[in-house]
Amino acid sequence: MKNMPCLLIIDMQKGMSWPQAGQRNNPNAEQDIAELLAHWRVHHAPIVHVRHLSLEPESLFWPEQDGALFQDVFQPLSHEMVIDKSVPDAFTHSNLAVWLQEKGIKDLVVVGVSTNNSVESTVRTAGNLGFNTYVVQEACFAFAKADFNGYERSADEVHAMSLANLDGEYATVISQDSAFTLLSSAVAQSQ
């Protein structure tokens, strides 16, 4: 597991696929994430599943409600790490950083939802903690949102701005093909 990049899958829960979640971009993100997950599993590379459990009873992600459950295709295997969070950042109030350090993991490949919320928050912390962090642009998605001035922004605009916030400062934004190459290179070096 040492020197292998860890796939960090953020908030791929049933509620994220429901219409109440809002208008989103990257409609093929689930398929892309599932392909990455399958590839990581084939190579026995480390995987962390992050699950948001809200503190608000009205939330889609209130614990033990259907919306908080992992989507079927993203059910963690028994040996895969699961991190529960109640704030956007997966590192806050969790043992994620310690677990990664104990495993000797230096590289993170981050996918999931939503780009401008939990993905961005987690990636900022990962970068600040010194992890080599990669965000797979087509394996993340965002929802439409009004900006601070009240102008409605499409999900594509929100996604693109969030990636721009991260790239080159906290992380490197990459394609799915580049993520496959990153893992293949690590596997080749470990043999």
From TrEMBL:
Gene Ontology molecular functions: hydrolase activity
InterPro entries hit by this protein: Isochorismatase-like_dom, Isochorismatase-like_hydrls, Isochorismatase-like_sf
UniProt-listed Enzyme Commission number(s): 3.-.-.-
UniProt keyword terms in alphabetical order: Hydrolase
Protein origin, superkingdom: Bacteria
Stretches assigned to the Isochorismatase-like domain: 6-176
Name of the protein in its database record: Cysteine hydrolase family protein
Originating species: Marinomonas arenicola
